[in-house]
Design goal:
Layout: E1 2-3, E2 8-9, H1 20-28, E3 37-41, H2 47-55, E4 60-65, H3 68-79, E5 87-91, E6 105-108, H4 122-128, H5 135-145, E7 151-157, H6 161-170, E8 173-184, E9 191-198, E10 205-212, H7 221-227
Parallel strand pairs: 3-4, 3-6, 4-5, 6-7, 8-10
Antiparallel strand pairs: 1-2, 7-9, 8-9
Helix pairs in contact: 1-2
């Protein structure tokens, strides 16, 4: 069990466990916006959905998860949270999901791994590999359902940045925000947080974020500020 300030998460059944990537995206996505309807694609334990429900009290959230065990665990996690009435967990392939109403925001922490050797466990393979959910298919699906001004926020390996921006442009989505992420201040980039917007022609805002200081132990002030609404205070001790 993982305890946050306003909710608790179990990840016993979900193939992919609670990690920094999910916390980063949940805290970073949709900054400065007021979303009304959010879809969390590949929700896993429901972590990002609950973080967004905490941040945006007006938002209704649909959490999509293809794996039935993870979806059941997400439902249980959501049911124990303060936002059970605003989060619906749907067990399906996101490509088969058709929203019943307008959606202004989509978020996703998609699987990263594309190497040919698959995990022997089907559930973990599904979560870790991009056969079912990959950035290209996600961008294409997003472009088809978002209205003008709608956003897709996701986290990906840093080396995928150029391909993501290219795929977005091909599908008439523009990059609005981009944050390069380092594990510590003297390390190479490992992740990119990216927000794509439909119908935006302006140049995008870029920044960088280091998770820990150069001693590899203390969290940076920027990371603390981004996540302090969620982590227990003892996390930063």
């Amino acid at each position: 069990m993982f305890r946050f300030k306003q909710f608790t998460i179990s990840d016993t059944s979900s193939a992919m466990k609670i990690g920094t990537d999910g916390v980063l995206l949940g805290a970073w996505a949709l900054n400065g916006r007021q979303p009304r309807r959010i879809i969390d694609v590949g929700c896993g334990t429901g972590l990002i959905s609950m973080m967004l429900a905490q941040r945006f009290p007006q938002a209704e959230i649909t959490a999509i998860e293809i794996d039935c065990l993870a979806a059941d665990e997400a439902r249980e996690n959501v049911s124990q949270s303060p936002w059970a009435e605003r989060i619906e967990v749907v067990n399906c392939n996101f490509a088969d999901y058709t929203p019943t109403g307008p959606v202004d925001s989509i978020v996703s922490n998609p699987p990263f791994f594309v190497e040919p050797l698959k995990s022997p466990l089907k559930q973990r393979a599904m979560a870790r590999h991009q056969a079912e959910l990959n950035p290209t298919s996600l961008i294409e699906w997003t472009a088809a359902i978002l209205p003008d001004g709608g956003t897709l926020s996701l986290i990906a390996p840093a080396e995928q940045t150029d391909q993501l921006v290219y795929n977005a442009l091909v599908n008439h989505l523009d990059c609005a925000r981009l944050t390069d992420v380092q594990p510590h201040t003297d390390a190479a980039l490992i992740r990119v947080l990216i927000e794509l917007t439909k119908g935006l022609s302006n140049s995008y805002h870029t920044e960088s974020l280091a998770i820990r200081c150069d001693d590899h132990k203390r969290y940076t002030a920027e990371y603390r500020s981004l996540t302090e609404a969620f982590y227990l205070d003892s996390t930063f001790d």
